[in-house]
Design brief:
Elements (H helix, E strand, L loop, with lengths): L1 H37 L4 E2 L13 E12 L2 H13 L4 H24 L4 E12 L9 E12 L1 H7 L4
Parallel strand pairs: 1-3
Antiparallel strand pairs: 2-4, 3-4
């Protein structure tokens, strides 16, 4: 009887984790899509050299980072997947959200300083908060690049001598 109660509690917690995790992920994706639409005019390029039309522009480092925690349900599903092998879709969506959020935060920083574009986009990803091999914990993604500022904007920002 006690083991049946424990199983019911486990399944209830697993179901709650799934439902609330999906709701949080859905809200986050909605926010990401909305902000991506708002920042669509700010170009972000992985090219190492800026396009020729930006030759006279000034440059400044911009970055955005995010730490996203893995919910218990995703950890449980990933554990099951590791038994059978194959793609771990639960972690793929986590990394997708983290990368997109980091890029958005970088774009917001670039927009705040008056940049027209960001080139040489790079990513750094780290796993943090893992406890004794019990799953991923949290993932940190840092997006950084070089913001291109029109000469007039940069001269207004530069400290006066």
């Amino acid at each position: 009887m006690e083991s049946l109660i424990n199983l019911i509690i486990f399944l209830l917690l697993l179901t709650l984790g799934y439902v609330f995790g999906r709701m949080a992920e859905s809200r986050h994706y909605k926010s990401i899509r909305q902000r991506e639409d708002e920042l669509r005019s700010l170009l972000v390029m992985p090219k190492k050299v800026p396009p020729p039309q930006y030759a006279l522009y000034e440059s400044e480092l911009v970055m955005g980072n995010v730490v996203i925690s893995v919910d218990y349900f995703k950890t449980f599903v990933a554990g099951l997947r590791s038994i059978f092998g194959g793609r771990v879709g639960a972690y793929e969506s986590l990394l997708d959200r983290a990368r997109r959020e980091a890029v958005l935060r970088m774009q917001e920083q670039a927009q705040a300083i008056g940049a027209e574009a960001v080139y040489n986009l790079k990513f750094e990803t780290a796993r943090i908060g893992q406890s004794a091999g019990q799953g991923l914990g949290s993932v940190e993604v840092l997006a950084y690049g070089t913001a291109l500022l029109p000469p007039s904007v940069y001269s207004e920002m530069a400290p006066q001598a």
